[in-house]
Structure formats: structure tokens, C-alpha cells
Amino acid sequence: MGGKAVIVGAGVGGLATAVGLRRAGWEITVIERRAELDGFGGAAFGINPPAQKALDRLGLGEAFLRKAVPYRQAAIREPGGRTLTRLPLDRVERRGGRPERLIARPHLLRILLDALDGIEIRYGERVGDPAELSGYDLVVGADGIGSGVRAAYFGGRTAQREVGTMAWIGVADTDVDVHGETWGDGAFFGYTPVEPGRTNWYAVLPSPAEAASVRPYFASWHDPIPRLLAATDPATWIGYRMRYLHPALPTYVHGGRVALVGDAAHAMTPNLGQGACSAILDSEALSRAVATHADLPAALRAYDAERRRPSQRVALASRSLHRFITTRHPRLRDGVLRMLPV
């Protein structure tokens, strides 16, 4: 089966879907509301073994491995530096047959764009009227938590919700010896490898929190947190209010020709580091369903059956973890963590 598909959104989910559908023989157009991809932004994505295997099936595995770094040791600490527990990254590797890996967002987007050489990407366009997309056999909404495709075809079934915290992310031009997260009272700070000589970090504080408040807030926390903040130009930081979609959608497909992927379908808080993984898994599953089913409505039903419930479980778990991390009763939380094996 082949045809003409339009993908709205040129993030990880949209570009990965374009790669998969192109491999399946579809004619692809990508529409992106931004005038350009703004240098792709900072930060890093954690890619778990299932999402890595999905990249393999999309033909992107080797390119991914050339740029990604393994993530094998990390811990959760308290602001004074005491280790509360270690992250079970060894268990992830045993179960998945490969380690968790981290990749800079620019590198992952470049891998996807390189695989789409020759595909039309129309920048600076917004989609508000479904009639604009009537000339395509398949419409894929990959346009994020504020998805215009979702609003146009799925109505008000779900809406953006804030969790009451503000996140700041950046990449410091320095290596550090420890990685993981540090949990305080209503706030936390994470730090991971991203590539040699650089460290990805993210800071989460109660909203509202301006960039100027980040360094003072974490000034007394253990090394390397103040050092990472000092080594990063605040002009390069990216800040956003943490949000998710609620209630969960009853379906990710509509009318036998429309499908949602990634944040457009199930935007989640980033606490489990599964946003990019879920988008990749959605994209590969949708492309595979379209390639293996005789008609499009059946393919979309198969995609929805495969991905909706798993992705919604991850979103709920991530939101629940956010509440646990940012509790105003850290003694009880930390006591629970200390009971876990280190």
C-alpha cells in the first residue's frame, strides 16, 4: 500500500514517521510551523533499548550509534551529596540486550534529516483548517502538545495541564565524574553525559521561576551542580513550564486517514525520560502498520492497538513520578529511596 502522506511537525516523531513512510513507498510532505529548526536546540535524549531497536528497523541504527553514548552508571542523591539509591541502568541493559544511550538532540535530528534528503519540508506553515490537508491519503499529527491536527480532528477530548513546575535545560562544556539526579524539597536537578567534553543538565523548580533564580537556588547543592550551571551561558538555556495532556485520548486515529504520534498524542512530563522514545516507537509502529496492512483504516487501527495503551501507561507513570520527586515531604520520600538496594 502506498499513497500521499502529510506529516505536520518536524520534530523527532514527525521526521521519524517520514523516514518510515518513505521506506514503505509513500510520497511524503512535511509541514513545520517554525521558519527553521533554530539550530535544533540544546539538551539530550535518553534512548532506551526498545526505541533503539525501532531505530534499527527504520534503518537508522548505525548512524545513531556513531553519535550516542552509553549510560551505565547514575544515582539519585540528596542536595548535600549523599546517595539515596542508584538508577537500575544495569537492569535496563540486561533486559534490553544493550545499554540505555544518550544522544544530543541536534545529532538525532540531523540523522533523521539526512535520511530524508529530497523530501519536501515546508517551513513557516501552520495548519488550522482540516480542509488544507484534504489532498492527502494520510494525515499524521506530530505537532506537539499544542497540536493543531489534534484540535482540528479530535476536538476538545483532551487539554494541556500544568504540573506547577518550571524546567530549565542546558549543555555545559565540561565533563563530570558523576551522573544522575539530585532531589530536594519541591525541586530537582539532573545531569547526564551527552558527548565527550559536554554534560547535559536539567533543573526543575516550583513555578514561576526565572532563569536568574536558577543559579542562586542550587548554589548550596553538591558539586558538580553549581559548576555545571556556571559553565553554561544562560542565553543558551531553554525554559518551559512542565505540562502534560489530560484526560488520555480514547484513540490516536480518526476517520481512517488521520493519526497522532508523539506529544500530539500523549505529551508527558519528562521524569522517566521517555518522550523521545515514545515518539520513535509511535513512528515506527505507524510506518510498519501502513506497510503491512492492505488498507489504511486497518493499518491505523493496528497502530492504535499497539501504541495507545503502552504510551499512556508511560505518561501516567511519568506524571506520578513527578509528584513523588517534587513532594513537599522529602523525608518520607528519601526514606523510601533508602530502602531500595544501592
Kindly describe this structure:
It comes from Nonomuraea longicatena. It is a single chain. By secondary structure, this protein is α/β, with parallel strands linked by helices. The protein folds into 2 domains: 4-71 and 101-161 and 244-324, FAD/NAD(P)-binding domain (3-Layer(bba) Sandwich), CATH 3.50.50.60; 163-242 and 328-338, 2-Layer Sandwich (D-Amino Acid Oxidase, Chain A, domain 2), CATH 3.30.9.30. The chain has 12 helices and 16 strands. It has helices at residues 12-23, 49-57, 61-67, 89-96, 105-114, 148-154, 214-218, 225-230, 263-266, 275-292, 296-325, 330-338, and strands at residues 4-8, 27-32, 44-47, 69-71, 75-77, 83-86, 100-104, 120-123, 138-141, 159-172, 180-183, 188-195, 198-206, 238-246, 253-254, 258-260. A 7-stranded mixed sheet has the order 6-5-11-12-13-10-14. A 6-stranded mixed sheet has the order 8-2-1-9-16-15, sandwiched between helices. Strands 3-7-4 form a 3-stranded antiparallel sheet. A hairpin with a 2-residue loop joins strand 12 (188-195) and strand 13. Helix 1 packs parallel to helix 5, helix 1 (12-23) runs parallel beside helix 10 and helix 2 (49-57) packs parallel to helix 10. It is globular.
